[in-house]
Amino acid sequence: MTHAPLRLRLDGAALVANWQLLARLSGSAACGAAVKANGYGLGAREVVRRLAEAGCRDFFVATWAEAAALAGQGVGVSVLHGARAADMAGELPAGVRPVLNTLQQVQRWREAGGGACDVMIDTGMNRLGIAPEDVAAGALDGLSIDTLMSHLASADEDVPLNARQREALAAMRGRTSARRLSLANSAGIALGPDYHFDLTRPGIALYGGKQRAAHDGIRQVVTPEAQILQRRRVRAGDILGYNATWTAPADTEVAILNIGYADGYLRCFSGKGRAWAGDRLLPVLGRVSMDLTAVGVDAAPELGEGDWVSLDYALPETAALSGLSQYELLTGLGPRFDRVWG
Ligand SMILES: *Cc1c(COP(=O)(O)O)cnc(C)c1O
Q1: What is the pLDDT of residues 220-249, one digit of tens each?
Q2: Average pLDDT, the chain
Q3: CA 177 to chain centre
Q4: In 3D, which of 244, 238, 309 has the Cα closest to residue 270?
Q5: What is the pLDDT of residue 335?
Q6: Can you tell me the distance from the alpha carbon of 89 to that of 108, in angstroms, rounded to the nearest whole number?
Q7: Is 285 helix (H, G, I), strand (E, B) or coil?
Q8: 131 C-alpha vs ligand 1 centroid, how far in Å?
């Protein structure tokens, strides 16, 4: 099979090191991994295989289809969106638990015979979850709950809401059959031991995201690379690309790369993004197109058709540059990349 003209270099050692750092930061709590949205764009099966080998036992996906895609890996998988009526019709994969979010989902799960499940409690985010009042009224009585969890709305900020959410979850201790409580995502782990409970659920920091000082040791995992389709000289005063947003101030050497906004390299990188040829920076010139992006290569006279360059994609810095979140930078990376683990 021929390879694609663009690829993601994925650093498996960095992924595992990031999980191990987050597991250490989680203290005595077990450390799981959020692998929804195809492992934040990296490829969920490959992420799960590596983290399971490192000792991770608890994985989180959004939907049953994402859980089914992990079948046969012998790990525990929690489905964050719970169980729809349509999900109950089919056979539920072994080792998979729904995270029940609503009273209707609880009732549906009971009617289907119960069995081990997780439950999401709403402690103030008002996104998903069952209200603490409903728990107090007995909504979860008799359910066989593995993990009772909640989710922090602002873990990457120092706001009073964090402590209020932590206290609301702590107040659930002993109120249900739950074996474990869980609250912290990547940023929540950095809020300290009070937030760790029995199980943490990092996502973005596994993949190189940094939101707090405790994440300083997190390593970059994902580097997009693209092949040069054409090298050309643009004469002083000539334009480049859609809508002629760049005019050459002097004769300029330009390489046209096999990557564009359809691959998740969005138009916000127009005139701003950067690529690397070794240690030489190549500026993105003009508008990013659907499948193509131009970079200036005066600094790299050796580069020609078929050569590869890597895109500057350190998550915190690239988020600041582009205005996209670190999450969008990863989950937007499209299906045309070869995903190459090293
Ligand atoms: C996505 C998600 C996580 C992981 O969050 P990060 O900010 O990526 O660490 C944890 N818990 C729940 C419920 C989530 O939806």
Answers
A1: 999 999 999 999 999 999 999 999 999 999
A2: 97
A3: 31
A4: 244
A5: 96
A6: 11
A7: coil
A8: 20
Instruction: Read off the pLDDT band of 1 (50, 70, 90).
Output: low
Over residues 287-299, the pLDDT tens digits come to 999 999 999 999 9
pLDDT given at position 85: 92
Which of 122, 119, 113 has the alpha carbon at shortest distance from 92?
113
Q: Note whether 184 and 191 are within 8 A (CB).
A: yes
Q: How far, in Å, are 101, 111, 136 from residue 105 at the CA level?
A: 7, 10, 18
pLDDT digits (tens, 9 = 90+) for 159-196: 999 999 999 999 999 999 999 999 999 999 999 999 99
- CB of 80 closer than 6 angstroms to any ligand 1 atom: yes
Q: Is 202's C-beta closer than 6 angstroms to any atom of ligand 1?
A: yes
Amino acid making up residue 317: E
Sign of the alpha-carbon torsion through 113, 118, 122, 125? negative
- Dig out the tokens for 176 from the structure: 């249900």
Token digits for 262?
């359809």
CA distances from 161 to 12, 25, 184, 259 (A): 35, 22, 14, 41
The count of other CB atoms within 10 Å of the CB of residue 237 is 10
CB 3 within 8 A of CB 15: no
**What are the Cα distances from residue 204, in Å, to 54, 108, 160?**
18, 32, 23
Instruction: Report d(CA 108, CA 102) in Å as an integer.
Output: 10
185 Cβ closer than 6 Å to some ligand 1 atom: yes
pLDDT digits (tens, 9 = 90+) for 53-77: 999 999 999 999 999 999 888 899 9
Ligand 1 pocket test: pick from 18, 58, 151 the residue with the most ligand atoms within 8 Å of its Cβ.
Answer: 151
Sign of the dihedral through C-alpha 293, 297, 302, 308: negative
